[in-house]
């Protein structure tokens, strides 16, 4: 039987756990269960595993020193941490909900934009701007500002990440074939004031017993991602091209994301259909795709990202996000595109 992951085209919402990552984690779920802050043998073993993982994450993103990496529960935590510590930060309207909603709540200032182009006003000294957008794949270069936080969740382990200009960065393990609930926060100079009180974990930067299996999994996922980055990137480009070629003749089709997008994410708005309906019909055919980001696909309001880019609400509602991964094959990509064409025709004649 074909590998079911071949027909999974929703890697921007999460990726399957790599077998090697699972193998690396298992000892820390079984016999090596020590608290990484304990001084006995079991504790020291966990501590060493965490330190090793810290080095691997630092290597993946090109950090100068492993001490610049603080382990978190994921990018949501890093994103909220940054905004809580820097209430003066300016924020782009394209950010993931974990930045966007926090910024709305705390009344941060918004960076102006023209389509996908973002303007950095001279007075914006502290900025949060993501590297790759999770809905459209749009890539933004880190601007030269005094303090820059970048959400690199959709970039780390997928495309080379530039750390020039970057003071803080957030990422999640489960976007790069690691476990859910583990992530890292890069702090170039020093961690911001702690969000959580309750212990001297992570050198006092973040309280809470360390998720050792999750951290070990993130480290192994980072190691594998670094080794295979170029091959995986080429694979994503090839598979994406298969889908685009096959869809070539479809009418009323608009590619989202602007001039520079990650090859891992393809966001298309189709006229005259509803994205969720397309997703459900594709699911019946065994394909997993998404209508927007997984975090907002249960909401009926159109995506704030497409809204910010100026995509009309009606068209935004007809959006499908196809996101690629290493198990996708050219055959599955072709079948996906053909099924999409047939489904579109059926829905439009209803
Ligand atoms: N930022 C981006 C760009 C994301 O795609 C996601 C996950 N959808 C997050 C942040 C949040 O990650 P997590 O849910 O793992 O905390």
What labels would you give this structure?
single chain, 350 residues, alpha/beta, 7-stranded mixed sheet, 3-stranded antiparallel sheet, 12 strands, 37% helix, binds 4'-deoxy-4'-aminopyridoxal-5'-phosphate
Q: How would you describe this structure to a colleague?
A:
- Helices cover 37% and strands 13% of the residues.
- With 350 residues, the chain is an alpha/beta fold.
- The two termini are 34 Å apart.
Explain the layout of strands and helices:
Elements: H1 19-29, H2 41-61, E1 69-72, H3 75-85, E2 90-91, H4 97-106, E3 109-110, E4 113-114, E5 117-118, E6 126-128, E7 147-151, E8 168-172, E9 183-187, H5 212-247, E10 253-255, E11 265-270, H6 275-284, H7 304-309, H8 313-316, E12 319-323, H9 330-348
Helix pairs in contact: 1-5, 2-5, 3-4, 5-9
**In what order do the strands lie side by side in the largest sheet?**
1-9-8-7-6-2-3
* Backbone CA Rg: 21 Å
- By DSSP, the count of extended strands is 12
| Class per helix and strand makeup | alpha/beta
Mean pLDDT: 95
Order of helices and strands: HHEHEHEEEEEEEHEEHHHEH
The biggest beta sheet is recorded as:
7 strands, mixed
Summarize the structure.
It is built from nine helices and twelve strands.
């Amino acid at each position: 039987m074909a590998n079911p992951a071949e027909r999974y085209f929703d890697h921007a919402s999460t990726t399957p756990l790599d077998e090697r990552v699972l193998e690396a984690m298992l000892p820390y779920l079984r016999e090596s269960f020590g608290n990484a802050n304990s001084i006995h043998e079991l504790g020291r073993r966990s501590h060493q595993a965490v330190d090793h993982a810290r080095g691997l994450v630092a290597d993946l993103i090109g950090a100068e020193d492993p001490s610049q990496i603080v382990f978190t529960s994921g990018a949501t935590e890093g994103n909220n941490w940054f905004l809580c510590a820097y209430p003066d930060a300016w924020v782009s309207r394209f950010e993931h909900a974990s930045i966007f909603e926090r910024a709305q709540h705390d009344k941060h200032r918004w960076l102006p934009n023209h389509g996908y182009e973002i303007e950095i006003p001279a007075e914006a000294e502290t900025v949060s701007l993501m590297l790759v957008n999770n809905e459209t794949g749009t890539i933004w270069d880190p601007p030269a500002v005094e303090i820059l936080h970048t959400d690199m969740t959709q970039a780390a382990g997928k495309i080379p990440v530039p750390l020039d200009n970057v003071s803080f960065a957030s990422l999640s393990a489960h976007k790069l074939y690691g476990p859910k609930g583990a992530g890292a926060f890069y702090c170039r100079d020093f961690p911001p004031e702690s969000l959580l009180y309750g212990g001297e974990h992570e050198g006092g930067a973040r309280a809470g017993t360390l998720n050792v299996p999750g951290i070990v999994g993130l480290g192994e996922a980072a190691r594998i991602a670094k080794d295979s980055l170029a091959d995986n990137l080429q694979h994503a480009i090839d598979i994406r091209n298969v889908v685009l070629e096959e869809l070539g003749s479809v009418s009323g089709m608009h590619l989202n994301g602007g001039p520079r997008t990650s090859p891992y994410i393809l966001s298309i708005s189709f006229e005259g259909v509803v994205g969720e309906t397309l997703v459900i019909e594709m699911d019946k055919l065994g394909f997993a795709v998404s209508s927007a980001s997984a975090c907002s696909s249960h909401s009926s309001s159109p995506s704030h990202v497409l809204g910010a880019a100026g995509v009309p609400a009606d068209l935004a509602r007809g959006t499908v996000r196809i996101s690629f991964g290493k198990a996708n094959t050219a055959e599955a990509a072709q079948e996906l595109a053909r099924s999409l064409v047939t489904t579109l025709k059926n829905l439009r004649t209803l």
